[in-house]
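Hey, can you fold this one?
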Amino acid sequence: MYMSCPPMSFSITNAVVVTPEAVLDSASIRVENGRIIDLMERTGPHTGTDVYNARGALLLPGLVDIHADSLEAAIAPRPAAPFDPDFVLPAYDAHLAACGYTTVFHCVGLADLGNAAKPMRTREKAASILAALRTFSPQATVRTRIHLRYEVTDIDSLPLLEQWVCENKADMLSLMDHTPGHGVFEDVAAFRRYAARSGQSFAASDTMLLELAKRRDLVDAKALHNLVSQCHKQGLTVVSHDDHSVEKLDWALQLGISVAEFPVTMQAVDYARSRGMQTVFGSPNFIRGHSHAGNLSVRELVQAGKADILCLDYAPMCSLPALLQMARLGQEKSFAAAARLFSLNPAQSVGMDKETGSIEKGKAADCILVDPSGAMPKVLATFVNGQAVYLSGQQLCPHRYYHAPASCC
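Sure. Predicted structure:
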């Protein structure tokens, strides 16, 4: 159930608290005016109207997501039957809170590519989604940010994008290039296979290929450099997308880009990390066990310690189960390290780590209570800036959680 704000000063006791470095059994936090003012290990019993007894549930930092592509699917669950973004956002925001997200960078795609355009990424549709997000943001339960995704072959949209950046209408920018040979698609054959899996005919995919090739020849490297420079002046994080080669990453590094989203070859992963870039991968890939586009396995990357950030990508329900699976399978050095992939590391990548991303004294009380027992973890409560924006209504029961506390009251 969704509810109004609780007292801005309260305690959560008898929780298994996951900090950036450790897991604390039967611990407590104290929140005042929306911030964590104390973190207490093995505290005694607490009583009072402002005390929430977790009864052994996990207390995790709220999920911070820098690449949330699922809004497009929420707006158009059927491609030919889109809803107005203003109509969709309240329910979508509530769903995110119920999944444990406390900060979300909603992706707005700008890829008006003629015959190769996606319906949700035309200039008109992108402008309407952006406007709806900005209008809705003050009433959202989840911290709402905007991640513009720009297809570099969309030359005609560059002036509009520059205008949005200058007007501070975005918080983050990613540069994409889906032309075969320049990113996720190794060659024309790979593009055709992907198009076929998406239900496109060879004729339709070849029409798109011709359109992309024609537009690729018009890309202005200097204009892109100016765009990235303007983003940095405005304080925006800029990331590269679907990096496939050392040359592509060197280009990104020369632009001052420090984050590589979804690198598609192991060579690109290793080179990016060797140059100090954070790597971002999708939780759906981890949950499903493989990439829907035939790229690298996130499970293998996590196990090898080569993933720095995991995002919801196209499926909000995947991040929390992925975190718990990592902890159970030992695919991170510790539970705390697994949690960092979903909270602190993404917060650091966008300069929000002083405010959120971990359970530490002085930070905003952005956290989630989770029952990790059973086949799927269940979010019991989500707090954003010390406000309970979601409560499941489930009775908390001691002695049955995955990481059992030393004692429960």
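Residues 396-409 have pLDDT under 50 and may be disordered. Let me know if you want another pass with a different chain boundary.
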